[in-house]
Amino acid sequence: MKYFLSALIAVGLSIAAAPSYAADARNVTVVNETGYAIKFLGFNAPDDGMDEWDNELDKVLQNQASTYVEFDDDDEGCVWNVRVDWQNYVETVLWKNVNLCKFTALRLRYDSGTKTTSFVAE
């Protein structure tokens, strides 16, 4: 029993001493609640210009599906532009200067009455 208790204390101390790696404050879950499939989801820094985008999706993001976007240490700042391209339409949606550090999820929505796409930040 004495050895078991010593081992348990040692394990507890090693876990407490291990460095913790918190998620980047900009990482965000994007939930597609638009009713349409999304073929492109991109983020770029406001200083990068509108021609520099990387698609964060490995496959089409279907309606009611979500994807988790992780930022690299090389990426800087909280404020990003967000671009969405639809699978079967030529329209692009662009939101400029979105502060990703203020929330962990973006719920994309489409209003057919006004024909506008918006997001709800959580």
UniProtKB/TrEMBL annotation:
Residues of the signal peptide: 1-22
Keywords carried by this UniProt record: Signal
Keyword Signal: yes
Domain of life: Bacteria
Keyword Signal: yes
Protein name listed in UniProt: Argininosuccinate lyase
Organism: Bradyrhizobium canariense
